[in-house]
Amino acid sequence: MPDAERDTSCGLHLFWDEAVTAYDFGPGHPMDPARLSLTMRLVESLGLAAGPGVTVRAAPAAGESTLRLVHTAEYVEAVKFAAAHPERQDRRHGLGTDDNWSFPAVHSASALIAGQSVAAAEAVWRGETPHAVNFAGGLHHAMPDRASGFCVYNDPALAIARLLELGAERIAYVDVDVHHGDGVQEAFWDDPRVLTVSLHEHPATLFPQTGWATETGGPNAEGTAANLPLPAGTGDAGWLRAFHALVPELLAAFRPQVLVTQHGADTHLEDPLAHLAVTVDAQRAIAQELHALAHEHAGGRWLALGGGGYAVVDVVPRTWTHLVATAAGRPIDPATETPESWRAEVYRRTRRPAPLRMTDGARPVWRDFDAGYDPADRLDQAILATRRAVLPHHGLLP
After folding, report:
1. Buried-exposed string 259-279: b where 16+ CB fall within 10 A, e elsewhere
2. Which residues are catalytic?
3. Residue 255 in contact with residue 293, Cβ under 8 Å?
4. Burial of 154 (0-12, 13-18, 19+ CB in 10 A)
5. How confident is the model at residue 4, as a pLDDT?
6. Is 375 exposed, middle or buried (0-12, 13-18, 19+ CB in 10 A)?
7. CA 12 → CA 56, 61, 128, distances in Å?
8. pLDDT band at 129 (very low <50, low <70, confident <90, very high)
9. Which H or E element spans position 262?
10. pTM above 0.90, yes or no
11. Which pLDDT band, with edges at 50, 70 and 90, does 3 fall under?
12. Which residues, 6 or more positions from 31, have their beta carbon under 8 angstroms from its beta carbon?
């Protein structure tokens, strides 16, 4: 159950529609929609969905005018065509490829996920709720004119574009997925109103092979893209050290009106598609830090999204349930046992045993970068390269 000793309930709109599970590339694809439904069942079984200040909402699918805030009209039509003809291959638009299989609901389900994120952004901006979560979202690789990396429509970019349309002048986007948030960076590369920050595995060892420290924004927005590529094998201590060496200082300087965050769970040591070694406990710690930073620098306006994560049973449901609990102001004690009813549901659906507790048994600690760094350490080299590339643009010392 939520930790009563630290219950400081925040208002939260949790966006959920069971129909988002139609975002299903099919058997054998890593993006198994069970990760979404199992997360929601865990949220419900721990009493979070019915908790004080929490409203569970469903929003309509994003319409064409909304999708075109980021995506080209030609691409939207291509996605619709792929839905009607899933047997066809359209490599120019990234559809029907090894990563992005076409399926009959490819347009409708993608637009529905985007609709949840856009409505969540609207709710936060209009003051209907301080915090909103759409863990089905975070599909950060989609480009304006093509699908990429299991992502068809780029809901984080669409949410940000809608915030700009509503009048926001400074939006910060922080992406802690193991993969570079390339599609969001691309969408706002030359827009000084949007700060994009991505911590990810080094592009030399992981898709999409972008996100180098030298990528800092377009000529009209220098310093508004920040990328910290982490060496393969980085664990809790290094991941938290890197985050604290960059993100708080940048947010303090940028002074965002809204904080949008992407919480891909694929940084985990058990994720089959990447090479970091982070635990659920560190992922929980980062969610708590971003919650605090939203209150400190963005007036509490926080939109949190899901993202990658392919350890469908052992990792994703726990990580995103911690995210929901944090956003609700009712953090869950890591020692909490997972409910027996949820474990039974996991076994029924997957024939796999569920984790017994909401923790990996780790106690994440990190060493402050300001206390000194090792110039021979690969992680410290990466941190210093990013600080040198970005911080001077904000009047900060590297």
Report:
1. bbbbbbbbbbbbbeebbbbbb
2. 141
3. no
4. buried
5. 36
6. exposed
7. 8, 21, 9
8. very high
9. strand 258-262
10. yes
11. very low
12. 23, 24, 25, 150, 310
Name the token pair of 161. 């574009």
Angle (CA) 53 57 60, round 5°: 155
Per this entry, what is the length of the chain? 398
Q: Are 90 and 74 in contact (CB under 8 A)?
A: no
Query: How many whole angstroms separate alpha carbon 195 and alpha carbon 191?
Result: 8
DSSP state of 396: -
As beta bridge partners, residue 172 has: 195, 259
CA–CA distance, 163 with 302 (Å, rounded to integer)? 12
- pLDDT tens-digit profile of 11-32? 999 999 999 999 999 999 999 9
Q: Given phi > 0 = left and psi -120 to 50 = alpha, else beta, which region is 352?
A: beta
**What is the token pair recorded at 137?**
């979202």
Residue with tokens 């664990």: 235
What's the CA gap between 139 and 303, in Å, rounded? 14
CA distance 74 to 91: 14
pLDDT at 336: 98
DSSP-derived secondary structure for 64-103:
HHHHTTTS-HHHHHHHHHHHH-TTS-BGGGTBSSSSS---
Listing DSSP states for 176-230 in one string gives -SSS--HHHHHHTTT-TTEEEEEEEE-TTTSTT----TT----TTSTTSEEEEEE
Taking alpha carbons only, the member of 247, 237, 226 closest to residue 294 is 247
- Say if CB 213 and CB 202 are below 8 A apart: no
Q: Rounded CA gap, 202 and 381, in Å?
A: 12
> Cα 116 from chain centroid?
14
HSE (CB half, 13 Å, CA atoms) of 127? 1
pLDDT of 30-59, one tens digit each? 999 999 999 999 999 999 999 999 999 999
- Cα 73 from chain centre: 26
Distance in angstroms (rounded) separating the CA atoms of residues 182 and 203: 11
Give me the percent of the chain exceeding a pLDDT of 70.
Answer: 98
3-state secondary structure at position 338: coil
Name the nearest CA neighbour of 6 among 328, 363, 357.
Answer: 328
User: pLDDT tier at 10 (50, 70, 90 boundaries)?
Assistant: confident
Strands 302-305, 131-134: pairing is parallel
